[in-house]
Amino acid sequence: MEVVHERCCGLDIHKKLIVACSIVPGSGGQPRKQVRSFGTMSDDLQQLSDWLAEQGVTHVAMESTASYWKPVFNVLEESFELLLVNAQHLKAVPGRKTDVKDAEWIADLLRHGLLKASYVPDRQQRELRELVRYRTSLIQERTAAANRQQKVLEGANVKLASVASDVLGRSGREMLEALVAGRTDVAAMAELARGRLREKRATLERALAGRFGAHQRFLVAEILGHIDFLDETLERLSAEIAERERPFEVVLDRLDTIPGVGRRIAEIIVAEVGPDVQRFPSPGHLASWVGVCPGQNESAGKRHSGKTRQGNRWLRSALVEAASAATRTKTYLAAQCRRLTTRRGYKKAIVAVAHSIIRIVYHLLIDQHPYQDLGETYFDNRQREQVSRRLTRRLQRLGYRVQLEPLSSAV
């Protein structure tokens, strides 16, 4: 088999141990293998780097094991050509299984060019990714805290959520603070309502007349404090993210023109994909990397399950959120969702809209122009005759005589 990299090394990485197997040319042109073990502390990783330099290694491959690969990558990325490989692509030979065998197997595959490197962005984008992903986790934690508070209120017979759409809004927050303070005058608490909520004061009095005990006052106060802490942290995080993404302001504004994609979703896209998508050969490759395209599973001329593959779960969830928001607009994406829902169901339709959004993102970043919507009547205009016949038949079955006359303003 052809040798692609003569001086290479495979790393089997664990939490406290790294097993390295180097393959370099030996006497007589025969490959010479050396195996050594290292710790995972910073000084141990520097010893690993020095040992690889002494061996004259040029290419290093490692398995993407949890987050244990990150310290190794940080130390070695400036001195060697690194390949971070998906664990599913490293099908170890069945039989005797040891760390040394795994390192040798990785080194052999790397030596013959049989490994495909995963996409690892530069250090600046990796730092931005950590900030954006942490913000997403905090938003999910805040949602969980709000749901936990709602359970406490339900247990206290306080039906505030049945009247106010936002329990944590200004009016709802003041009512909750009044309950925590021990106030029992529901009429006075209903007067705290603002805006259109004041029209529901009578219903608010009934909703606030619950059985709010001492332990529930304690729990609600603690949960509100936790939510306040999360809000402050999210505000600082958002400011830091905005500062780091300031060089990509033009890209963010361009992505913000896509229906359903707000500022936060645009920041997630830039953090996960980067402002340059030329590393992906086509929109389909990008959609496959994200994990929003149908899976390929065909055998003997029959297509089996088309379940989507696992991709970038952070970006995938953001795209699904954007797709859900886009379906509530009067745009092409909303029309696409309605068209697919009737045949495939809502969940598959949402994933298909997310697929369309990431393809739109690819073209906007490649062509560098703002989004131009095709319109919510795009599919109807594309098949005008078929749509007209179908709707005419439906009206005729209902007992109507139909005669169509085109308007002069019709397209």
Largest sheet: 5 strands, mixed
How is the largest sheet built, in terms of strand order? Answer: 3-2-1-4-5
- In which range does the helix fraction lie? 40-55%
Beta-strand content estimate: 5-15%
The assigned structural class equals alpha/beta
Mean of residue pLDDT values: 91
| Residue windows where pLDDT falls under 50 for at least 5 positions | none
Radius of gyration: 29 Å
What is the overall silhouette? globular
- Per DSSP, the total helix count is 16
Describe this structure in words.
- This protein is α/β, with parallel strands linked by helices.
- The protein contains 16 helices and 7 strands.
- The strands form 2 sheets. A 5-stranded mixed β-sheet has the order 3-2-1-4-5. A two-stranded antiparallel ribbon has the order 6-7.
- A hairpin with a 5-residue loop joins β2 and β3 (31-38).
- The longest helix is centred in the middle third of the chain and has 33 residues, at 123-155.
- The relative contact order is 0.07.
Keyphrases for this structure?
411 residues, two-stranded antiparallel ribbon, 5-stranded mixed β-sheet, alpha/beta
